[in-house]
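cron nightly-structures :: item 1 of 1
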Amino acid sequence: MKDRVTSKLAKKLDNGRGGWTIEEVPQGTFWAEVKSLSARNIIQYRQADKNTNTLIRMRANDYVTHDSYLFARGNKYLIEEIIEEDDFFIIMAVGERIGE
């Protein structure tokens, strides 16, 4: 596993003025393998009503959940599905370039 992936969770935090803001709170940084899917695989997932364009494989942990966002290679990944297999997570994610 050669990619460093940072997991963040969007939390509602008090802004000190009687209101709140939503901030991405870091949960941890993990080693993972990030793979872009081929056009053929993307089409197969679209037929199943999924927007998946990336697979991320990493060791299973308590921090990464469906509510988390993953950051790696200058992209933000939204988790669509997590499959647990032999102490690893296979994460189907939608990647989008940060700043677009």
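cron nightly-structures :: done
The chain has one domain: 3-97.
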